[in-house]
Each structure stands twice: as structure tokens, then as C-alpha cells.
Amino acid sequence: MSLPPRLIPLLDQFDFAQLRLRQRIAGPFVDSGNGTDVEVGELTDEEYLSEPVPGCWSVRRRADGPGPRATVLTGTGDWGRDATPPPHPAPPPFTTLAWRLSHLSELMTLRADHTDGSHSLTRDDYRISGDAASAIAAFDAGADAWREALLAADDTALDTVGHSTYPHGSDPEDPFLDVVWWVNQELLHHGAEIALLRDLHRARTA
Fold this sequence. Notes:
mainly alpha
């Protein structure tokens, strides 16, 4: 199946943002933007779980319970991600690299399932990663699954309201093309935040 022409630039943008973030968290190099390779240090478990300010939301061992101002740990397995039902705390808690990467991986995995899968997965089904290597693997898996869902979309799907039934957003009320755009924005802005957190950690530990 040929891709709808209006999907092509969004898919290209997704591929660029996914690769750039993947290189930024796993290295060994990332393009500086002008064609120069910049060396990237390994994402360690210590950095993955680092809390740069007091009161962070992060991913935590389920046995330790939720962090400050959180009431639940979402996901399944031995680890969970800090959360609370709406209304969320104000001002919002600062979220760690682990929290942001887990959030990105989960939203791509679940949206893929609710677009071209079982339409049944929830946050309670998603396994939260407690170490850097598992988190990077989960990011790769989520990005691959979402990309496969995009490749299956034709023009009719792009215009269909509720083509994605993802329950933690406005997807059931939105044309799928809007959902594709939104996932790109999530990847771009959280990717930039993660890159900044890596820079901050490097500067603080140098």
C-alpha cells in the first residue's frame, strides 16, 4: 500500500525525532545539527533514576509506594510510574528522565494497540522499566509498534474520527491525522526535555 501523501511529512518527522532521541539516550553519537557527530555518554541506571530537584515524580519500586504528591504507581510489574487521578497537582511536579521516557514509550505502545491492535491495553497492562537498558528497549518497541500502525493507515483512516481508541486522550473524538500530529509533538517536546536533563546531569556530575 502506498502512503497517503499528507502522511509522508509526518512520518518523516516522526522518524527524525525518534532517531534523534534514540541517539541522545543511547549514543554513541548524535548529530549536532550541522553534520558533526557529538559523543554521547551511556545512560546509566543512576542517571535514568536521578531526581534533580526535591519532590520529583519518577518511576519507583512498587514496594516503595508512590512519590511526593502522587497517589498511585501506574503500570504492571515490580516498578510503577508516579501518577494521580485528575485533578493533577498544581503546580505540576517535576518529572525525571525515567518518568518522561516511560510516558513516551507507553503512549506509543498503547496508541499502537488502540489503532491497529487489540484495542484493549490500558496503563495497568504496561510494564514500567526500572533500569536504563530496559527503558531504551521499551522505547524502541513502542516506536516500532506506532510506526507500523502509521504504515497501515490509508486516506480513509487518516480522516476517521476514533480510528485510534486510545483511552487516555482525545483520540476517540479526533481524526486520526490529528492524533499522528499529536504523537509527533509529544516525541519532539519530551525528547527535548530528556536531552536537557542529560545535559544537566552531565554538568552536575562533571
